[in-house]
């Protein structure tokens, strides 16, 4: 027997799994709906078998599950149905690997180890963000609370999509400082303030700078698991109205915990990367100038216009419609005049902490300052994620698919080196290779962070942060990750490219990543 081509076998097995899952879901509905599912699903499935050119006893047994009345309809519980469906899928994988002699182990590993085939798809339908305002009392957004920023974005998502908000299950909004006016499950307050259906739940999360992307990934995970059909994930941060470090807790304030964590301010970690990797002051300054150039070019050409929601005051007047932090006239020469920002911390004792952890260094090279580090700004970003069924009910067309996501911990003293490892983890979870990524987006916490990442993964300049980053436009801590999802999706569409990876480092050695692909 000659095996069918590998793609056809994959297609047939995926069709089998989709059929199994849909019929299990159908158990929650009427018998008539279950029979409708069988009538709808079996014919295309039968066609896939015929196209595959591979029939055998195991394959025939799988098809028998659906033929002549479908035994799944006789199940007494969803658990029993899931067991039958799972057995069918296992048989399908055995069929791919054994029943068709033309397949190879590597082919089967590619299919069976992706971790994706047993899930529903999570699609991105829309995304919005605020402009970034300077994070200080004279910044344009200082008078706007975090809940108000989130509320205005929620209203924008509803109005521009004519969205029936009763179709949504959850809204997850995170921030890096969940204290004061940013506490109290801000997401739920914003949902009600925006006039959404009261059935829409709200959740607040916190993973330092990884928070915004994590919120999007958590919504996607619930959709993938079939627990919800749609939700909104994102983040908000008013850095002009809250104080960085208010929520740090034992990690920084308890001496015994700080000692075992080798705690030092992030800027010390950034300078330590530069010291270990040999990045000079001119190197990191040139990177910062390029970030400013890219961001100015993107704004001049309207690359962000579809994502930006101008923020308005109580009278409805526009307070800000552009990223306020940018300095497009920045040069290497102008940056050279700035003094290192973290040398004082180092000489006060944190350089000794760095040397204790990394005894191979003789002196710390202080190269980072306000001009080559992420800017302090106010802002928010949200992403609408849902299943295929949600899109059909809402009358929306998906723009992208969240393929995979991952989190990881890394060495906590530097605390900025997780992006490479977590990106590889997300790539593996998506059943991909690094060559499959068309665009990379890494939050520009500090210049040395992105420079090390590029070196470790061998990423050319024209594939990473192609529209500038947080050095130019600013980093509203809890919101940036969600903003970057939209930035990547818009740029993929503009370039007619397929796949992008978003990643961020976060305090205490944390890192997160997600892969998005166009549909």
Automatic annotation (TrEMBL):
Thiolase N-terminal domain mapped to chain residues: 124-344
Keyword vocabulary terms for this entry: Acyltransferase, Transferase
PANTHER family, per the entry: ACETYL-COA C-ACYLTRANSFERASE, BLR7806 PROTEIN
Lineage of the organism: Bacteria, Pseudomonadati, Pseudomonadota, Alphaproteobacteria, Sphingomonadales
Similarity comment: family membership: Belongs to the thiolase-like superfamily. Thiolase family.
Enzyme class: transferase
GO MF term list: acetyl-CoA C-acetyltransferase activity
Protein name, UniProt field: Acetyl-CoA C-acetyltransferase
Organism, scientific name: Sphingobium fontiphilum
A Pfam cross-reference name: Thiolase_C
């Amino acid at each position: 027997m000659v095996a069918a081509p590998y793609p056809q076998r994959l297609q047939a097995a995926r069709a089998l799994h989709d059929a199994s899952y849909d019929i299990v879901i159908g158990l929650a509905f009427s018998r008539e709906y279950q029979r409708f599912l069988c009538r709808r699903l079996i014919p295309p499935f039968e066609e896939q078998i015929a196209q595959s050119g591979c029939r055998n006893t195991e394959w025939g047994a799988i098809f028998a599950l659906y033929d002549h009345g479908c035994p799944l309809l006789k199940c007494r519980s969803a658990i029993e149905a899931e067991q039958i469906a799972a057995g069918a899928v296992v048989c399908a994988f055995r069929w791919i690997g054994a029943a068709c002699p033309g397949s190879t182990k590597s082919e089967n590993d590619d299919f069976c180890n992706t971790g994706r085939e047993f899930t529903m798809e999570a699609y991105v339908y829309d995304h919005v963000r605020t402009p970034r305002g300077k994070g200080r009392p004279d910044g344009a957004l200082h008078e706007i609370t975090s809940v108000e920023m989130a509320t205005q974005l929620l209203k924008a998502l509803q109005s521009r999509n004519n969205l029936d908000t009763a179709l949504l299950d959850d809204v997850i909004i995170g921030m890096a400082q969940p204290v004061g006016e940013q506490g109290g499950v801000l997401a739920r307050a914003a949902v009600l303030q925006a006039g959404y259906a009261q059935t829409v739940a709200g959740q607040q999360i916190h993973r330092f700078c990884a928070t915004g992307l994590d919120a999007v990934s958590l919504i996607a995970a619930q959709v993938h698991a079939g627990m919800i059909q749609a939700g909104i994930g994102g983040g908000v941060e008013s850095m002009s109205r809250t104080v960085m470090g208010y929520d740090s807790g034992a990690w920084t304030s308890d001496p015994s915990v700080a000692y075992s964590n080798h705690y030092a301010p992030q800027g010390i970690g950034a300078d330590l990367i530069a010291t270990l990797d040999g990045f000079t002051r001119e190197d990191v300054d040139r990177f910062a100038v390029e970030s400013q150039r890219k961001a100015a070019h993107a704004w001049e050409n309207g690359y962000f216009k579809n994502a930006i929601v101008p923020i308005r005051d109580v009278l409805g007047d526009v307070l800000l419609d552009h990223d306020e932090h940018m300095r497009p006239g920045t040069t290497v020469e102008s940056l050279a005049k700035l003094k290192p920002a973290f040398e004082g911390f180092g000489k006060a004792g944190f350089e000794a902490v760095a040397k204790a952890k990394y005894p191979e260094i003789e002196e710390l090279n202080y190269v980072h300052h306000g001009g080559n580090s992420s800017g302090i700004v106010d802002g928010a970003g949200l992403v609408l994620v849902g299943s295929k069924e949600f899109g059909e009910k809402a009358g929306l067309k998906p723009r992208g698919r969240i393929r995979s996501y991952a989190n990881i911990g890394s060495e906590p003293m530097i605390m900025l080196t997780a992006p490479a490892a977590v990106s590889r983890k997300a790539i593996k979870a998506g059943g991909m290779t690094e060559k499959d990524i068309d665009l990379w987006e890494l939050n520009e916490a500090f210049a040395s962070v992105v420079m090390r990442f590029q070196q470790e993964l061998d990423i050319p300049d024209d594939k990473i942060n192609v529209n500038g980053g947080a050095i130019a436009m600013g980093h509203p801590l809890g919101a940036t990750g969600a903003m970057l999802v939209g930035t990547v999706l818009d740029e993929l569409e503009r370039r007619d490219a397929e796949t992008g990876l978003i990643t961020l480092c976060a305090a205490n050695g944390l890192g997160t990543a997600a892969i998005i692909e166009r549909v």
